[in-house]
Every structure is written in structure tokens, then in C-alpha cells.
């Protein structure tokens, strides 16, 4: 009886590891989509509402998904801390500090590059910066969807198959 329980636990653990690995692809896609929609909202807030970046980030933190919302809240808090950070510096500090954001290093490089141009020029150049970042993030999203399609099913199946192989070995 104990042997059967052990085999079931090995199988469940192995399958869970496979599903957890596959979940990273799903979360990356969701995070990229959330950043894309947030950047579109941010440019709208800056262009039409003409509120400060700090207020725009605080507003975005309320409407964005959890990880991205925490990021925008952190940027807003850094800007409001009266420590003299520019918007670009606050953006980069927040990207370094925020945890579990589910992005690749290339995604973060794009966001850091976008942040360097944030708040440094007029609205026309800001719009160009937003469009460039949006296009690059859309390409990253396309790549993420493609790798997700390839790898999610693989990791899920691999987790189950490795569990079955371990169980067979112990029989």
C-alpha cells in the first residue's frame, strides 16, 4: 500500500513540475499583453489627460494585472518619494526591484530602453518612444506565443512521462 502511495506521489509531483514549467510560458504572454495595454493607456493618459507621470503610473497600477500593477505602483512610489529620481530612473529601479514579473531578459531590456526615454522630451517624441516600445513588445509577444505553442505541451507531457518512467523503474 505504501509503495502505491509513493508511486502516485511521484507521478503527481512529476506532472506538477511539468505544469509549473509550462505555466511560465503562459504567464510571460499574459505579462507582455498587460504591458502592451498599459503602455497604450499610459500614452493616452499623457497625451489627452495631461496628468503627471506619477499620477498616470498610480492610475495604471489600479487597472493593470497584479505583477504589472505592482510595477507601476512601485514606479509611482519612487517618483513620489522626493528623492529626485527622474521618470526613467524610477522606471529602471522599479524593473530591477519588482519580483516575479515573468519576463525574459530581452523583454526587460526593451522596457529599460523605453524607460530611458520616458519623460525626457516633448509629447511628440514620447509618442515615438511608446510606438517603438509597443512594436518591440508585440514582436516579443509573437515570439512568446510561438515558443509557448511549442513548449507548453512538451513540458506537460514530459512531466507526466518522466513520472511514469520513474514509477516503472521502481516496480
Cα(first) to Cα(last) distance is 13 Å
Report Rg.
21 Å
Largest sheet: none
The proportion of residues in beta strands is under 5%
| Poorly predicted ranges | none
Q: Helix- and strand-based class?
A: mainly alpha
Count the helices. How many? 6
Q: Could you tell me the number of beta strands?
A: 0
**Proportion in helices:** over 70%
Mean pLDDT rating: 90
Run of helices and strands: HHHHHH
Which descriptor suits the 3D outline?
elongated
Question: What are the SSEs and their pairings?
Answer:
Layout: H1 2-49, H2 53-63, H3 66-80, H4 87-97, H5 105-116, H6 123-170
Helix pairs in contact: 1-2, 1-6, 2-3, 3-4, 4-5, 5-6
Q: What report would you give on this structure?
A:
By secondary structure, the protein is mainly alpha-helical. The protein has a domain at 29-142. Helix content is 85%, strand content 0%. The chain is built from 6 helices and no strands. α1 runs antiparallel to α6 (123-170). The longest helix has 48 residues, at 2-49. The protein is elongated, with a radius of gyration of 21 Å. The two termini are 13 Å apart.
Please supply descriptive tags for the structure shown above:
about 170 residues, 6 helices
Kindly summarize this structure in a few lines:
It comes from Thermoanaerobacterium aotearoense SCUT27. Keywords: Membrane, Transmembrane, Transmembrane helix. The chain has 171 residues and is mainly alpha-helical.
Amino acid at each position: 500500500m505504501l509503495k502505491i502511495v509513493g508511486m502516485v506521489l511521484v507521478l503527481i509531483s512529476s506532472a506538477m513540475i511539468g505544469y509549473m514549467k509550462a505555466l511560465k510560458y503562459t504567464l510571460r504572454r499574459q505579462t507582455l499583453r498587460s504591458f502592451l495595454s498599459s503602455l497604450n493607456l499610459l500614452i493616452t493618459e499623457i497625451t489627452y489627460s495631461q496628468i503627471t507621470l506619477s499620477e498616470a503610473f498610480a492610475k495604471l497600477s489600479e487597472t493593470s494585472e497584479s505583477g504589472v500593477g505592482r510595477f507601476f505602483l512601485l514606479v509611482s512610489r519612487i517618483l513620489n518619494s522626493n528623492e529626485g529620481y527622474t521618470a526613467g530612473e524610477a522606471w529602471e529601479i522599479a524593473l530591477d526591484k519588482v519580483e516575479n514579473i515573468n519576463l525574459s531578459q530581452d523583454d526587460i531590456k526593451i522596457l529599460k530602453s523605453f524607460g530611458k526615454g520616458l519623460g525626457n522630451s516633448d509629447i511628440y517624441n514620447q509618442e515615438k518612444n511608446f510606438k517603438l516600445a509597443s512594436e518591440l513588445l508585440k514582436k516579443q509577444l509573437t515570439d512568446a506565443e510561438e515558443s509557448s505553442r511549442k513548449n507548453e505541451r512538451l513540458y506537460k507531457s514530459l512531466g507526466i512521462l518522466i513520472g511514469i518512467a520513474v514509477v516503472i523503474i521502481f516496480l
